[in-house]
Amino acid sequence: MPASASPILYESHCHTPLCKHATGEPEEYCEHALRRGLRGIIFTCHSPLPNNWSAEVRMSDAEFERYVAMVEQARVAYADRLDVRLGLESDFVPGVEPWLEKLHRRVPLHHVLGSVHYQMAFYRERYFTGDVFAYQKIYYEHLALAAESGLFDTLSHPDLIKNEVPVEWYFPRIKPFIAKALDRIAATGVAMELNTSGLLKALPEMNPGPAQLAMMYARGIPVVLGADAHRPERVGDNYIKALNLLREIGYQEVTVFLDRRKHGIPIDQALLSLR
């Protein structure tokens, strides 16, 4: 492989069986990262939450140390071939901040995703009144609050709410509220994700779609790539398509977090590096 095509990209969003809706051991995810031509992989499994919230789709607090050990085992096994890192995907809901502050301090993390999962029962019980448009607005308000909390490096799949009721997703209607949220997010310096798993959802486009992505670019918001892999073969999935989309929008770099610090990667080089 020529020097210009050396692996430089990371999978920045992937899971483990501890979340109870993913399959495959970390080592299998690592194998697919190598096949994709990635330099590294950052595991970001769903964090535990207080009060046993949505326990059916995440690790329990008692399993957190096991998660850390699983990723460490993979790091050691692939030390000479792939850069394996520990991260976390943590749900944001107003009031959860003290819990997450303690959780994020328990071990060194390389990348912390902040997610607003509107479909979780505990979240719907609090915020869904039957008014879909109001729910969309609350979602973006909570994305902005998540960025302002200082808890997260990247906001994941940041238009996920469009899949709540796809026929109710009318971008011109929600656009002014997205703009206000993005203004607040840009002021924090927090990155946002381009999540390729959106191609598999009810509205088959990446999260976010091109219109929101263009608004993010206009505000200088950095973008992190993630496949949101819940099975090994999805590691790095559709990265070439995602990078080309970013380039069309105007981005020249994609961002990766290591040691919770931003690193920019030129998109043209990233495209050459992938298999």
Distance between the ends? 11 Å
* Strands ordered across the widest β-sheet: 1-2-3-4-5-6-7
Query: Beta-sheet strand percentage?
Result: 15-25%
- Supply the CATH superfamily name: Metal-dependent hydrolases
Give the tally of β-strands.
9
Q: Radius of gyration, Cα only, in angstroms?
A: 18 Å
Distinct helical segment count = 9
Describe the fold and architecture.
This protein has helices at 26-36, 64-77, 97-105, 121-127, 132-148, 171-188, 210-218, 239-249, 267-273; strands spanning 10-14, 40-43, 83-91, 111-115, 154-155, 191-195, 223-226, 253-258, 261-266. It has 275 residues and is of the alpha/beta class. It has 9 helices and 9 strands. Strands 1-2-3-4-5-6-7 form a 7-stranded parallel β-sheet, covered by helices on one side. Strands 8-9 form a two-stranded antiparallel ribbon. The model has no long low-confidence stretch (mean pLDDT 97).
